[in-house]
Amino acid sequence: EDKVVQSPLSLVVHEGDTVTLNCSYEVTNFRSLLWYKQEKKTPTFLFMLTSSGIEKKSGRLSSILDKKELFSILNITATQTGDSAVYLCAVEASGNQFYFGTGTSLTVIP
Amino acid sequence: KAGVTQTPRYLIKTRGQQVTLSCSPISGHRSVSWYQQTPGQGLQFLFEYFSETQRNKGNFPGRFSGRQFSNSRSEMNVSTLELGDSALYLCASSFWGFGGGLNEQFFGPGTRLTVL
After folding, report:
1. Cα(B62)–Cα(A25) distance, rounded to whole angstroms?
2. pLDDT by 10s per residue, chain A, length 110
3. What angle do CA A45, A34, B98 make, to 5 degrees?
């Protein structure tokens, strides 16, 4: 059964800390892995990863994919309270199949 | 340009009723996908429409159906509502379909459905 598992389920850190969110997957016919940030209700796109070992970076956020070990990590450095959100990992498989993890809830306290 | 809009934003129904949710994609986007989000199951894919055709479907019962109009607006219908259908229903639009970059999906604000 195809699945995407995220860990931890929730995380509470202080401003300035660095966090690493994990996403592992077992999906046949993998095409891409995507990270979203969900604040309130609406997920917003962060990264799309298709190749192993190539880090994608946007400001304090970065992500990398390991297609051999079937996982991805999302790093956030120097966290701010505005980073508090649910971070969703999704895997796209061929045939337009999409699988989401249940998300990691991140709370950044001042 | 305007984002994805969903109506209504909140809905309360009773068991056995049926409901229709609406999603208007970003102008020019041809793909609309629907998702159900619940605390226990996370975000689950319902179906995707592209140019008025259902291109793919997730593992949901036949009570869940949808359609897309020529202007790319999409509706989702749930018949014979059950308590477990209470969830946030999100739609997302993109030019070609799921994926990031040029094919980035843009999500709407969601419709919160409560079934009593």
Report:
1. 28
2. 889 999 999 999 999 999 999 999 999 889 889 999 998 888 888 989 998 888 999 999 999 999 999 999 999 999 999 999 999 999 988 766 778 898 999 999 99
3. 80
* Residues B91, B9: Cα–Cα separation, whole Å: 12
User: Is the Cβ–Cβ distance between A31 and A47 less than 8 Å?
Assistant: no
Interface residue A31 vs chain B (CB under 8 A): yes
**Residues B16 and B81: beta-carbon distance below 8 Å:** yes
CB contact under 8 A, A42 and B109: yes
Quickly count: other Cβ atoms within 10 Å of residue B54's Cβ.
14
B86 and chain A: CB distance < 8 Å anywhere?
no
- The tokens of B47 are what? 């179906």
* Strands in chain A per DSSP E: 3-7, 10-14, 19-26, 30-39, 42-49, 56-58, 61-66, 71-76, 85-93, 97-100, 104-109
Q: Tell me whether A102 touches chain B (CB under 8 Å).
A: yes
- The sign one gets for the Cα dihedral B72, B99, B104, B59 is positive
Q: Would you tell me how many other CB atoms lie within 10 Å of the CB of residue A106? A: 21
Distance CA B50, CA B13 (A): 29
Q: Are B76 and B92 in contact (CB under 8 A)?
A: no
Interface residue of A42, A44, A46, A50 to substitute, partner B, most B CBs within 10 Å = A42
In this structure, what token pair is assigned to residue B22? 């609406």
